[in-house]
Amino acid sequence: MEDIFSLLEKFYQLGEQRDMDQITTHELFHHSRVLIKTHTRFPLIKKMDALDFNIEDTYLYLYLVWKTLSGKESVDIGRALDGMFDRSSEKLHYMQKVISGNVVWGK
C-alpha cells in the first residue's frame, strides 16, 4: 500500500466483499489481521496493533475512520455490522456489546 488512505480503503473493500458474500466473516478478519501486521509502518495501524483490541473492534474502528475520511457525517452501525458478519446472531451479539459500552475504544 502506498499510503494510509489506500490501506483504509482496502479494509473497506474487504467489508464490501464480505457483504456480497464473496468472503466469510472469518476470511474478513483473517485478511484484516494480515493487513494490520504487515502495515505497522503507518502510525494509525501501529497504534491499533499496540492497543491489542480484538479484530472485530479494530476492523469496525478502521471502517468508521474510512467512512469519516470519505465524507460520511454519520454511519448506520447496523448496516456496517451487516457487512461484517455472516450470521445475524453474530451481528446481534456484537451490537449488544456496542450498546452496553463494551467496545474498548479510547480506554
Q: Supply the helix-strand structural class.
A: mainly alpha
Shape: globular
Share of β-strand residues: under 5%
End-to-end distance, in Å? 29 Å
Biggest sheet descriptor: none
pLDDT below 50 for ≥5 consecutive residues: which ranges?
none
- According to DSSP, the number of beta strands is 0
Overall mean pLDDT score? 89
Which value, in Å, is the CA radius of gyration? 13 Å
Compact summary:
The protein is mainly alpha-helical and 107 residues long.
Topology of helices and strands:
Elements lengths: L3 H16 L5 H14 L4 H9 L3 H15 L7 H6 L5 H12 L8
Which key features would you list for this structure?
mainly alpha, 107 residues, 67% helix
Written account of the structure:
There is one protein chain. The protein is mainly α and 107 residues long. 67% of the residues lie in helices and 0% in strands. The chain has helices spanning 4-19, 25-38, 43-51, 55-69, 77-82, 88-99. Helix 1 runs antiparallel to helix 2 (25-38). The chain is globular, with a radius of gyration of 13 Å. The model has no long low-confidence stretch (mean pLDDT 89).
